Amino acid sequence: EVRAVSDSRTAEQLAIAQKWAPFSGVLFSEIATDLIVEHRRSEVEAARILAYAHAAAFDANLACFDTKFTYWFIRPSKADPAITTPIGLPNHPSYPSAHSCETGAWVTVLADAFPSERPLLAAYAHEASISRLYAGIHYRFDLEAGEAIGRAAGRLALERGGLE
User: Quick one: what percent of the chain has pLDDT higher than 90?
Assistant: First the structure.
């Protein structure tokens, strides 16, 4: 699948890969801030939402990198040198996708804080995750495992403190 995308990458796929090339947390922090303003949350509510989201993302990244360095799964372009990578190739193992781990955590916390925005957040999560496949740096199973890790970290953050 990664090779097929690499061989026929569209302009739209390239744009998505480049949009999400920075750490996804940077973009999700902006999304969260926009939602906080749009939904007129107080400073205390805003601080709480951002604190839980950042804590969940941090925990997701810890679990993600623990998993990466347990399994040491090869990157697609290392397994098949014909796969092109239009963004930089990370210098750590492929499985699971750190973007997907972080994204899963952010979306879980933000969906709890802004239930009416779940469809929008799900769309952002999908785009952030699939961007890594479009970039030729992850397999689909990397994305799926990362999203699961992130969702678990997000649920844990919410269970431990909650966003009333």
Answer: 94
Q: How far apart are CA 143 and CA 141, in angstroms?
A: 5
33-74 pLDDT per residue, tens: 999 999 999 999 999 999 999 999 999 999 999 999 999 999
DSSP string, 2-65: HHHHHHT--HHHHHHHHHT-S-HHHHHHHHHHHHHHHTT--HHHHHHHHHHHHHHHHHHHHHHH
Q: How far is CA 18 from the centre of its chain?
A: 14
The C-alpha atoms of residue 125 and residue 16 are separated, in whole angstroms, by: 12
Write out the two tokens for 35: 């939602």
> For residues 20 and 27, is the Cβ–Cβ distance under 8 A?
yes
Q: Please, are residues 107 and 29 in contact by the beta-carbon 8 Å criterion?
A: no
The answer to whether residues 59 and 153 touch, using CB atoms and an 8 Å cutoff, is yes
